[in-house]
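Final report, Chapter 2: Outcomes

The project's central promise was a pipeline that accepts a single protein chain and returns its three-dimensional structure in a standardized token representation, suitable for archiving and comparison. That pipeline is now operational. To close this chapter, we reproduce one record exactly as it appears in the project archive, with the input sequence first and the structure output second.
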Amino acid sequence: MIKKRRAHTQLFVFMDAFSAGLAWSIFFAYRKQIIESYKFGYKIPVELDTNFFYALVLIPIYWISLYYLAGHYKDVWRKSRINEISKTFGITVIGVVLLFFILLLDDEVSSYQSYYSSILVLFVLNFGLTLFFRLLEATIIKSYIKSGKLGFKTVVVGNNQKSLTVVEELMNPLSMQGNLFVGYVREINDNGAHILQNILPDLGSYTDLPELIRKYDIEEVILGIESSRHNEINEVSNILENQKVVIKIIPDLYDLMSGQVRINNVIGTALIEINHDFMPEWQKILKRMIDVLVSVFVLVSFFPLFLFVAIIVSLGSNGPIFYKQERIGLKGKPFNIFKFRTMIVDSEAAGPQLSKENDNRITRVGKWLRKYRIDELPQFYNVLIGEMSLVGPRPERKFFIDQIVRIAPHYKHLLRVKPGITSWGQVKYGYAENVEQMVDRLKFDILYIENRSLAVDFRILIYTVLTVLQGSGR
């Protein structure tokens, strides 16, 4: 299935490149035969010069880059043909406007009316050809899915009547959505009825899901649990954290009335998809670019400050200038975080401890560095090499994570994104002095993850800068 999906993705890329090249070729002829001929008063021959062939290579690369940034190639098997129309329209508008200012603004024209005509023709050609081939490809894939030739290996959580009804609907040829059922697992409060046992294999308990996902290459998990049973849903979701699967819930009447269910398939079964990743692909790429640029700027521009701080840290107390500590990052991967040392050497000889107000382990220089968050500056190196981001949940040590998870298992959701130098939780709550305060701060970081965007990042950065300027850190 992976090879087939990769092949279909490559086909989408190839047809987009073909559409872009064909659209530009027709537009090139239009400019010569219509725009330039009208300008000079005689027919301009269509000569395929060097510039045309350069454009024939660069223009498709330009469009494919835009489509990639917009997330068009993320999962071609799940494409909605209706959504494809609006998404293609939007990115074509942006792409044509950029092309106009880059390539067409200095064209020889008889009047501004020719500019309007050029933009319109270029838009119609790109949008029409691209959309035609995309809808054709999407329709072919849908037909393969309907026939069962393609699909998503699926596990159902639960053995109740609700699960049975949905499985029967999704196995019906008239309402298939590509689910290839591998089996079911027993839910948390299993009543032992095993209603599904005559239809699907019993794969064990819900706690076996991570192992089953690896063993059978599972792509979808359908929770046959009442959506009102939040604790059970949260427990299964925590088990599925960092698993590359689509999680769907069977809605009840309240969910339907509250507008939580969004229909992507008119004929298919209505399901709530748990989607924690709302940041578009282009924003993720731009976020990483901003991380790199800002990190390089800070590390270069503030180098004299680094030298000054290094001197006063070394003079202020005995010990190294920098402090290195292992933290847990994206997907639970450990990494070493760097700071200017603000505490005495062997400050944790008695075991891991969180800093507190008036902590006697903090040096005199360290208090000043913490007040203006200057001790955090070396972490821009962590950002530069990709271990951290400018904005994201603050990374913690495994020692404290294990304690937090016992109280709040949903802490694992924070490992879904890169940790940051600053975070919504830190801006709204500040540094935590104990595990209970860490749990209180957790809700702000969960809110950040569920509302992640560049706009939110910029707001957090602004508040962080104000905190630094006011010296209200500690």
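Archive annotation: The CA atoms of residues 82 and 264 lie 9 Å apart.
This record, like all others produced under the grant, will remain available to the consortium after the project formally closes.
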